[in-house]
Design a protein that fits this description.
Chain lengths: 247, 358
Amino acid sequence: MNRQAQAVVLLLLGGAVIRASVTDLYLRYVKEGLRPFLIAAGLLLVAAAIMTLWYELRPAAPRALAPVGGPGTGHDDHGQAHHEPRVGWLLILPVLGLLLVAPPALGSYAAGQAGTALGSQQQSDYPPLPEGDPVQVSVLDYASRALFDRGASIGDRRVQLTGFIATGADREPILARMVLSCCAADGRPVKLGLTGDVPAGLPDDTWVEVTGRYSDRLGRDPVNDAEIPYLEVESWRQVPAPKRPYD
Amino acid sequence: MSTDTDRAAPADEPEGRSAGGGVDTRERASEPAVGEPPRRWLGDRIGSVEVLAALLIILIIFRDPIAAALDDPRLQTWTTVFVSIMVQAVPFLVFGVLLSAVIAVFVPRSFWARALPRHPALAVPAASAAGVVLPGCECGSVPIAGSLIRRGVTPAAALAFLLAAPAVNPIVLTATAVAFPDNPEMVLARGVASLAVAMIMGWLWLRLGRTEWIRMPRRPELDDASRGRAFWAAVRHDVTHAGGFLVLGAMAAASINVLVPERWLQTLADNAWLSILALALLAVLLSLCSEADAFVAASLSQFSLTSRLVFLVVGPMVDLKLISMQAGVFGRRFAFRFAPTTFAVALLIAVGAGAVLL
């Protein structure tokens, strides 16, 4: 891969990163806080590409490197063949991933592969739920309150949470939401069992908004043997996938 | 005309590179007078870019079949994980490369002679301490260590920095404290063990390391008369080079992520020694970034604290994407000695630290 081609690849990579971070595409892969760094890195990549092209294409600029005349005149591209990295061709793959494929956020398949993220260590005193009936909580918040203070801070309140449908232990639908700490490679599911008016007949990965109350039933995740709290569903409706797919 | 294409091919064709290079020299030697450098150069240039353009056009035309082929949930998860590792790593890679280009071009050699203790054995702890202060990620620290060596820093110190920078820094330690709220001793154990590994590896290199294992490619452009040109050449080169190896590592890590279900780990967790070994290997295979691995370790709750400490100490120092990048920057002979040794040392130190501190 010669320098011009490298410049083009850098330009594409920088452009793909900038495009992903000015739209909401990047939220499928990383945390929101990374956005300014992504934009800065994208701009730097574009700058590196432009500077490379500028230095390469400038007509007959004083080339400090190229020996003028003499036997070595074959230009510096003989040396270039030795130190210009071939492995750079691979950088096309993330460009394609971002520009052409743009894979969806992690869903039910990843949730089925990993154990629920609520292991042992959690706090046990939770602040009271915010105002509202039903009160909007995240799957993670509900699950940790239900699991670690046995629903004491939920009480008899009606809660509303959004997640996607996945298949649980006994082929029953469960509500799941992935949590990220850095990027989707470390994404872990938070799983919630459903009782009451269980959303039936929905394919996996369908996003739903469920309203319900605390249930003291507990299940077990077959993957890591951790406890899975339940929710007593009163009503549910199908919703489009949220802008921020992760909790 | 035919010679033109012959010469253009080697630069474009990844496989035939070395063979092509040989042909190139012979032909050049045989026709020194006839050679027309500008035309040759143009042919060469258009070659690589043309291949790229054709490739992109083909991919855009076949966009729908490609998307359809990725419909399988496993492939889709693979793509998501791969893309997200790359997106996560790009800022760290770019900023690391920028810093390494500044070191390579703007920081004079004499600076390192003054900044680091003269004796290599003392330079090792100093470099480790520098690694602690700089919040780096493993993707950025490989090119930085590379340009430190290039600028005359003793390899032992540069390698200690390479290991310490991603493993112990304020961001990583804070993340560990947040992930293990009930076990603050985990933060201490991680910091102490990682620092110890970095320094031991530095000192080991002083005793056993051979300079010829590190084979760093010649980089004539770094000595360019124009600092600006040298700087941007270094940035361009390091991003394509280290970035390309990062892609390799990210593909490997995404494959492990999808192919190894967590269920398998469950069966290993019950045996104390097996679980330590399993999590050490998992850390190598998963190639998580060091800012995130504490949260994953916290979620592996079926494993003992010591085995999770091993996961946290090994991960930032040896993993697939690091091995791939080290092989690219320092040469394969180096990486295939350095990575297994680091793995063994990190495993032993982490188990020791776990026994004492946890």
